[in-house]
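The records we work with from here on pair a chain with its fold. Each token is a code from a learned vocabulary of local backbone shapes. A record is reproduced here so that you can trace the correspondence yourselves:

_____
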Amino acid sequence: MRVHERVFQFYLSTFDFFWLCLHHAMCMTACGCYHTCVQLLKSFVEESFPKRSHFVLPYSGQGMAAKRIFILCLAALALVNAEEFQAPVPVGSANFAENFQDADAFSSRWVKSRATKDGADEDIAKYSGEWNVEAATKDAVVGDLGLVLKDKAQHAAISAPLDEVFTFTDRPLVFQYELKRQEGMECGGSYIKLLTKADDLDLAQFTDKTPYTIMFGPDQCGSNFKMHFIFRHKSPKTGEFEEKVADFTGSSYPFLTDKASHLLRLVVRPDNSFTVTVDRNIVKSGNLLEDVNPAVNPPAEIDDPEDKRPEEWDEREKIPDPEASKPDDWDEDAPSHITDEEATMPSDWLVDEPEHVADPDSEKPDDWDVEEDGEYEAPLVSNPKCKEVSGCGPWTRPTKVNPAYKGKWKPPMIDNPAYQGIWAPRKIDNPNFFEDKQPFAMSPIGAVGLELWTMTANQMFDNIILTDDEAVADRYAADGFDPKHTLEAGPSAITNMLTTLLEATQERPWLWAVYVFVVIVLPVVIIVGCCLPNKKDPEAEKRARAKKTDEVQPDDAPPAEEPVVQAEPPLFETDGGEEPEPEAASEAAAAAQETSETPEASESPEPGAAAALDVPEAGSEESSPRRSPRKQTKKKARREN
């Protein structure tokens, strides 16, 4: 097989392999029969790509077509027998877990706010945004549902009580939920509030003023992206609450711009450390005592509010030199530019030609009224004669910079001998100072709430969980988020690959030549070289056919008569005079032939050896010079058998 044919078969087989792999991936993602499909793929690879001594892969149009149909049938059968989607269930302790799969439970558990927002316009002040439990509009896992905010440009609030109040003791807080912005985001929030436990907490009156312990999630308006982690800290000195905002400076949020599902998690630990992750990637990690604004603990000293700066306090570091004086030759009235007296008018300057002339192509409009509009005058255009010369009209000398110009004189600056530095008020002890070494011990949490305003509808929230065990959240994410992520990753992976290839051409434009060669030139060369008919030598084809069929050729020696020789005793001794088996005879003949090829045998062949071994004489049909004696002997034995 020629090299280009091998290359072409390699391309065909590789393409077919990836084509079938795509169907395996469809089978795995659609029906969830992961183990079965993996075994199927493994068996197909072992069958189609056995170990070979050369690199050419097997390819057969009918065989591969049959395998394609077989794989598609298996995928269809898997879809029919696929198990129903299993909603995630917390394996372990959880204070709150919601997968939105039970419509009756949702109606009894979640409470829509009927309150009115203070300070808002009357027509939009009411929390009237609609919430609905439904499937995703795109790339939805069959049977999976989520909480969707249907309306835009309306205030919306909904909340649910915890199954068990979360108290900050010696266990971490792990809060996790899934977010899918199905239509992107123009402007709005996608965060969730963990409401503070209180005896007077009325979820039906849930508003932006309702006390919360933690607020976590993304917020976006235009190109302004934010990730919120805000907690309300109670001062042990005054008992007042103050919002502490985590500093996300330097963090990036590319996930905010797409429409895929994302897993958001907040972990706050008893050692005051916290971690924010998106799709299991760390976005921010820090400490409650160091990485929030304003700081949890106020400064021990503050500026004295009653201290005032003295009037004689001099903060000027530099002052004009009082002893400096303007030089006598300093001319403050000299202009910055003067006329260039050495300039001369260019020889091609057209003094008598105006710079602008009436447009010769202009025509008076049909509705022009002379009595109301006056005499019609064509608009002015640049004189075409002036375009080919230095200029037209009256010529004037240009100006140049005045070498004698110095400008307004100012005395030089010197160090101020009376400089006292920048004044600052004196420090006093902070009357509200306290030191809280455990800001993790926040107010207990009694409910989960979403209070949002957005200009983009159809935000989906799903699989909300609050626990004190990260392993429980990991398992919950594996059962709920991973199937969605797997389903959405295929198209996005291809898109990301194409985007990366295109971005690479911005810094290296020569990559376009590589892309064109690989995508267009190389396939065309392979197709032209392997598929188009080529001229063949008839004589070469005839010799090749004769080599395969042992057809007699003109240059073959004529057959000779076989000499009569005495029969030699049999090579094998058998019981009862039975003839030896054909396979044994052929092996013995081959061994005898090998013996005859040794120098001693070639010099003194025994008489009758040809008859004993049943090897044809020279010139016979079986004695073609294109076959070795061993192959001829085996072929003769097969014929007799």
